[in-house]
Task: structure prediction
Amino acid sequence: MASLRLEKVNAGYGRLQILFDVSFEVPERKITVIVGPNGSGKSTTLKAIFGIANVYSGKIIFDGENIAGLPPHRIAKRGIAYVPQTDNVFAKLTVRENLKMAGYGFPEDQIRDRVEEVLEMFPILRERMNQKAGTLSGGERQMLAIAIALIRRPKLMMFDEPTAALAPKIALEILDIIQKLRDEHGITILLVEQNAKKALEIGDKGILLVGGRVVFEGGARELLEHPDLGRMYLGLVGEEVAK
Amino acid sequence: MVINLSPVYIENSLLFANTLVMLAVGLTLTYLTTKVPNFAHGSLAMVGAYALFTIAAIMFGNQLSQLQLAQPLGLGFAAAFLAGAFAGLLEYLLVLRPLQKRGSTPLGLMIATLGVDLILLGVLNIFADILRGMNPVTGTTRDWRLKAYVIQKVAGLSLGVWISFGIMIGSLVALYLLLTRTRFGIAMRASIENPALAQVLGVNVDLVNMVSWILAGGFAGLAGGMMAFVQRINPATGSIEVVAVFAASIVGGLHSLLGAVVGGYVVGLSETLLTKILSDITGVNLVTYKRAVPLIFIIVTLLVAPEGIMGINWRRLFSRIRSRK
Ligand SMILES: Nc1ncnc2c1ncn2[C@@H]1O[C@H](COP(=O)(O)OP(=O)(O)OP(=O)(O)O)[C@@H](O)[C@H]1O
Ligand SMILES: [Mg+2]
Result:
């Protein structure tokens, strides 16, 4: 069953259209990966879903209801979380304050329980509770960003290049966590990744976006092993794919 | 070379500084939330001042009894807050938000606030003329002040000083409690620090912006009413005082509400007390040039400490001075 479905979405910023008739489905409890060259509209797709970019026409169906045109704070309340690529923590606040802020709108005792829950997932954050988020390492920061999103117990989580600028080992750790979110928490994942190969390897479904249009929608493996698309758009070299 | 500071002069200096504090806090607040330096902020104060004047004019009638001040002043300041808040909200909703949605640059928005200032000046002038025909209490609706009504002493200080401190401290405490103790206040701080992320966490950033304009306009309205305790009010008074308000906010660093409070006092007391003291010491009448004080503060702050007083690392500065000895 589809958790999220885009139908002929045209979107952009002001009068500048970036997405053209974008349609795809995000199946429930699966990882869907959006890949594509720089500037192809991957981030814009996430922003359109979250009501940050302007949606001119088309439908965005989440849980059976059209959410296109709703403001972001309403979309957040429906159970979609979005971890932006940059500025995804409150840098000047401590880790503790960040987690508390994340529970904005929930009752105090519920926030405490949920903070405890995410700290169990990210024990490293427990040691950093009184540290300003701006002073965390790249990996810790990304974990905090995920923790912040998790506190709201979303049904669907969208990540924008969560491994960008991370050391390869840490990047793998983050992708591992994302897999865990699917397998152990049953969360639907929509993942935008620069590192197409790694992402498609953990993904169930792959979408290739080029010039604001969907060029491919299908199985992640299928996209990864596609004879032309990989080489043309994703910088995957033949042997690398074969491995 | 005798320093000659009368209690009245000191009281007036404090009254002036209090209005600057109220105005600078609002200016900084809207700058923090919407990132717009609002050049119409002084005129928002005049909207409040004329609201107070209208209530006072109607209620005082022709025979002023100083014994019955509480009611007209209480109602007048409530009206000043509401009128200022309403004008501030309109400025945001009708001018700034639509421009922001269309992707205006900060410079474009800033110039738009100058436009708003001109519109408010026009409206205030028209209003002053209408009011004059309606209720000629003092014979004029320009160059009016309320000093005479609040001059009587209460526990050693004039009534005006008590009212002014009461309003200022009350407003600041209310703002502090809102920002630190309420869920909405926490949301406000979150969206000041990172509006995009706050939105993602379910904060209605647009509502935060609207509330900040309501509060800033309301505080400005109260400040406008308080101004009438020290100086003569004209429709254009706010456009002139806005320079001192900017100086106060800039001295405070533009990013800190506490800085705006400190900046309001530093600039306000420098413009009044410091110029008087220096005049008495040097024998040169520097008070005449007091209007230059805010400008000097703006220039010096931007050159020496662009982050304002709150951005200076005082401890390091002191230890450096000490080690030099
Ligand atoms: N806020 C904005 N206002 C105007 N144009 C924007 C804005 N954000 C992005 N764009 C433009 O939209 C186009 C698509 O950008 P987008 O960020 O969606 O690409 P992307 O696929 O995420 O690229 P990357 O891999 O570099 O992150 C780009 O041409 C970009 O310049
Ligand atoms: Mg991007």
